[in-house]
Structures are given as C-alpha cells and as structure tokens.
Request: fold
Amino acid sequence: MIKRNGHWLMVALTGLVAAVARVPVAHAAWTLNLTPGVDAVSRDIYGLHMLMFWWCVGIAVVVFGFIIYSLVRFRHSKGAVADTQLLHNTRVEIVWTLLPALILVSMAVPAARVLVEAEDTSGSQLEIRVTGYQWRWVYQYVGTNVTLISSLDRDSDQARQLDSGIDPFSVPNYLLNVDHPLVVPAGVKVRVLITGGDVIHSWWLPAFGIKKDAIPGYINEAWFAVDPDKLGTYRGQCAELCGRDHGFMPIVVQVVSQQDFQQWLKAQEAAMPPGSAPLTPEVGQPPLPTYAPPSPTTAPSPTT
Reply:
C-alpha cells in the first residue's frame, strides 16, 4: 500500500514540475554570479562583492579544514582523550580576537568608500525624475518639458492575457520590454530622483547597480554614468510588491551617444503638447500626466 501511494505521489510531483516548467515567465540570462555592470559604481559594487566572497571562502577553508583535521587527528580510535579541564590559552585567544577584527576592518574600509561614492550625486550633468505608478513609470527630464510614460509593451501585454492564444516564448524580451524606454547619453553623470505617485515601488536596474525605493511623498536619489563604449539597451524591473500587476512594470534604459541624445531630446521637446512647462529642479510631488508622448523614433536602436 505504501509503495503504491509513493508511486502515485511521484507521478503527481512529476506532473506538477512539468506544468510549472511550461509556465511562461520573463526571460533573463542565468548566471551564478553578479555582473560587473556598465559604470564605475556598479563595477565597484561587484569588486566589493568579490572581496567579501573570497574572504568567506578563505574563512570557510580554514575553519572547516581545522574541524576535519581535528576529527581525523584526535579521533577516539587513535587513543585521543577528551580535555575535561578546558584550559585557556591567552595567545590563541588574542589571535582569534585580533584576526577577525582585522578582517572586518579590511571589509569595512572599501565598503564605506563605495557607499559614499554611490550616494554622491554632486556634479551631475543631467537630472531625471522617476515616478512609479500602478503599473508604469513616468520619466521627466528636469529643465525640459519632456515627459515619457513607460508601460509594458503591447506584445507582452497581449501575450500575458489568459486565453490569448499567443505563445509567450515567441515574444522577444517577454515582460521585459516597454513602449517608451528611458533614453540617456553615455559618458554623462545622470542623477535620478525617484519617488512614487500612489504606492511604494522600487526602481531596480542591475547593470547600473541601482535599486532605490519609489516612496510617495519622499524622494530617493541615485546616479550613474555609463561608459562611453557601453551603448545599448539595459533592462530592470520593479522590485517592490506594488499590487496586482507588479510583475508587469519593466524598466528599459536605452543608452546612446551624447550627440544622438541631444538630437532625440530636441525632437521630443518639439513633439510635446503646446504649453508644456519645463520641469524645474525644485522637485515636488508630480501629478500624473494625462497624455502619452510620441514614440522616440529619432533615437537610434543600439544593440542589446
């Protein structure tokens, strides 16, 4: 009876695994490690991660190596007798106190440097207000009248509907593409002012080393400066559970040359509705725009 029940349990589990495997999800590269990123801060974060990783590996090798050596060297079959006195060794205690302290200092100094660098938004050459709404992003270029409303692209939106008849695996960048990407220039320090218009969201862009919460009534800031040779398209997602369609708030940033960006920005300013006032650096809680800007067709399409 037990064997029969076990057989049917394995059949059920196999069917469940097969069904889950066929559920379409957003596709992403599968790796075992963080990626270095495309700007100085993201590379520093990656370097900090690797520093901590190798310290952990070294500590694990020493600790587990000592444990295994002790188990083998002082096993009962070799005549080892347990120490019932538990005598102190001052020299050993000094070493195992100072050594971890020095290791922590070697971690804390570079970590503090990276944290200070990541929060230093001074000297930015371009400012963009990022506002999260259910369930889209609004990008406003400070000092201009350019506003982009970035939502899940139509192909992904149609394919995700129940009984749509569309194979999600046939949709390029399924659930990771938008109708209006954020366009930024390479080689320029860009400051982003991140807030929320309704509930808490989170603007997460792994390639830039940025993950900041978008909180209504509060402004978080971050910055990035993509290397001039890293033109392309970079993708992220909302990383804070924000409601029913949380999984359908992708972030797409298109990095172009400075010359192409200036041309694109001028074309967008000319296409904005008449009477649109430039956004000033004095940032307050923005209202939700009631218009959708035209598709940025004048921006080039770099290779992802």
Notes: The longest helix spans residues 40-73.
